[in-house]
Specification:
Layout lengths: L7 E3 L4 E5 L5 H8 L4 E4 L4 E5 L2 H9 L4 H11 L6 H13 L4 E5 L2 E5 L3 H8 L8 E6 L2 E4 L4 H10 L5 E2 L27 H11 L8 E5 L6 H12 L3 E5 L2 H14 L7 E4 L9 E5 H4 L14 H4 L4 E5 L6 H7 L6 E6 L9 H7 L3 E4 L2 H6 L5 E9 L3 H9 L2 H9 L4 H11 L5 E4 L3 H11 L3 E2 L5 H13 L4 E4 L14 E4 L7 H9 L10 E9 L3 H9 L1 H5 L4 E5 H5 L1
Parallel strand pairs: 5-9, 10-15, 10-16, 11-13, 11-14, 12-13, 14-15, 17-22, 17-23, 18-20, 18-21, 19-20, 21-22
Antiparallel strand pairs: 1-2, 2-4, 3-4, 5-6, 6-8, 7-8
Helix pairs in contact: 2-4, 3-4, 6-13, 7-8, 15-16
Length: about 550
């Protein structure tokens, strides 16, 4: 049935075309985002794709195939291809058609469908993890293979529902404080409570593992801490860097009744193992050479942890995936602003950490005032004669860097700083030489990967206090840096088309602000270059969340 007033066209290849200028665009965008991924976002029509993983995550979050189909029927202009409706049913019903359960300390792969068990018993990808077939509905899994078989099942299109339960870690009494150290009342926001409740599920086996997706600045750390108060067990926390590690420690001291004696730092500077131990991905994956073992990876087994938190889980490195496959009996929580991985390993997060348990649109929290309203602007500047020849002669990969290091970007930075006098400004980039030159020209401090931790903490503290209105930072500031007063970010270069980096950089300025609660995110891009091509891809995730980039030229900025 043709309904010309509806905004969506559903195509046979499982792509969805959404009219951006339709009055119901925002509501439809949020509805589609629960079970489809945005692929393209030109001015008038946005393209979404329904994938097996997007449908499995939707099923894990409580959606049914009927609710997904009803959504498409409600908003589609044309009749929906029957193949698409069938695919939705097939993939969503696949989630949970096989389950992992425990029977008398034995791990069992079971299904209500004997043909599924027969198929899996004969799949070469699964056979290495099976001891034998118990009956028509049950396979006995080899000891220690819980994570490995889950990983293999996802890869062949059978996302298993893990109901095998968890070991009880060593007990740790932990409660949220009534007041923070500054005397402010501490109360979880509604969405933080909902996220924890959905994740923990009252202690049931269908809870306790998975990912909570919240915007940067929306309080992922306090949400993780609230989950700790539910589980009441010794906890291992994995973070992105030492600065983030110490921020977690400070948050635990500020917002719980834990004493400093209970919280250990496991880093390059100290090796403390305490009831709550915080470390970094870099520490766990450090080794002397490619042929050597990872000497710190056994931190996962040094204590009887009952809970493991993976901060910025989308950055999880391969060695940590491997050890995570071995510890599936531990409760596991992934925290992130975006599940996008540029290496395409989203399936591994799904199988080894768990499915997406809770997600909330960024714009929904912006409307409620929990994160700042962000104005995104892409400033396209001409390529100067000075670098045109180098750009024309360079290999394709080098063209991006030449365009990204356009020397005329310095002039634009000066204009933006003049425009935002009195604001807290971060200048963020990819290339250290470029950043150092800008820091020198502006006579402002710079933080890179080589800046020692004490110096980083000092500069961040000065920035927070307003003693430094402007700070130049490399990609080390992409993640988990708490700079609540930062309200302007100027991005001068990035990691090619990284969508998650774009989202994280915007996140540096999304903490709620007093008064207007507004922030400004500028990307300076060389026009008609490889950098401009990649900028479009970088913006894709934020476009899906409802952000619109205003494109202006140098001349328009001057006006």
């Amino acid at each position: 049935m043709y309904n010309p007033t509806n905004p969506v066209i559903v195509q046979g290849d499982r792509t969805l075309l959404l009219e951006v200028h339709h009055p119901a665009y925002e509501d439809v965008r949020d509805a589609l985002g629960r079970f489809a991924d945005l692929e393209k976002s030109p001015e008038h029509i946005h393209t979404y794709r329904i994938s097996p993983l997007s449908l499995w995550n939707a099923a894990a979050s409580g959606l049914t195939s009927h609710s997904v189909q009803d959504c498409l029927v409600t908003y589609s202009k044309y009749d929906i291809p029957q193949s698409v409706l069938a695919d939705i049913t097939t993939h969503m019903e696949r989630y949970g058609i096989v389950r992992l359960i425990k029977e008398e300390d034995q791990l069992i792969l079971t299904s209500h469908d004997s043909y599924v068990i027969l198929e899996l018993a004969n799949r070469k990808e699964i056979r290495p993890y099976i001891s034998n077939q118990l009956d028509t509905l049950r396979l006995l899994v080899q000891p220690g293979m819980r994570g490995h078989i889950k990983h293999a099942l996802v890869r062949i299109g059978f996302p298993v529902e893990d109901l095998a339960g968890y070991v009880v870690g060593d007990y740790l009494a932990i409660q949220l404080s009534a007041l923070t150290s500054t005397g402010q009342p501490l109360q979880l926001r509604d969405y933080q409570k909902q996220a924890v409740d959905v994740f923990y599920a009252g202690g049931a086996n269908h809870g306790g593992s998975g990912v909570i997706v919240l915007p940067c600045g929306a309080g992922k750390t306090i949400t993780g801490i609230a989950a700790m108060t539910q589980i009441q067990s010794e906890t291992l926390i994995l973070t992105t860097n030492t600065t983030a590690l110490r921020q977690w420690k400070q948050e635990l001291l500020d917002k719980t009744d834990l004493s400093e004696d209970c919280i250990g730092e496991y880093s390059g500077e100290m090796k403390e193992i305490k009831p709550v131990t915080i470390t970094t991905y870099q520490m766990l994956t450090h080794r002397q050479g490619a042929s050597q073992e990872f000497p710190h990876i056994d931190l996962f087994t040094k204590q009887n942890w009952g809970f493991i938190i993976y901060d910025e889980v989308h950055l999880l490195p391969a060695p940590v995936f491997r050890i995570t496959a071995e510890i599936q009996a531990k409760r596991r929580l992934g925290l992130t602003a975006t599940l996008i991985r540029e290496d395409g390993l989203e399936n591994d997060v799904f199988s080894l950490i768990g499915p997406k348990k809770y997600d909330v649109p960024w714009k929904a929290l912006e409307k409620q005032g929990w994160i700042a309203e962000a104005h995104c602007v892409e400033i396209r500047i001409p390529m100067p004669e000075l670098i045109k020849m180098d750009y024309a002669m360079a290999p394709l990969r080098d063209k991006f860097r030449i365009a990204a290091e356009n020397p005329d970007k310095v002039t634009i930075i000066h204009q933006l700083l003049a425009k935002h006098q009195g604001h807290h400004v971060l200048i963020i980039g990819q290339y250290v030489n470029q950043l150092q030159e800008i820091a020198t020209v502006l006579n402002v401090p710079i933080i890179t990967g080589k800046t020692n931790n004490s110096e980083r903490i000092r500069l961040y503290d000065q920035f927070k206090k307003g003693e430094l209105p402007t700070l130049v930072v490399s990609k080390v500031a992409n993640f988990a840096i708490d700079l609540p007063d930062a309200n302007v970010a100027i991005q001068i270069s990035g990691t090619f088309g990284s969508r998650q980096e774009e989202a994280q950089r915007l996140g540096r300025i999304l903490r709620p602000k007093p008064d207007t609660n507004e922030s400004y995110f500028y990307s300076i891009v060389t026009a008609n270059s490889r950098e401009q091509d990649f900028a479009t891809k970088r913006q894709l995730f934020l476009t899906e969340q409802g952000y619109k980039y205003k494109i202006i030229t140098t001349q328009e900025l001057e006006v």
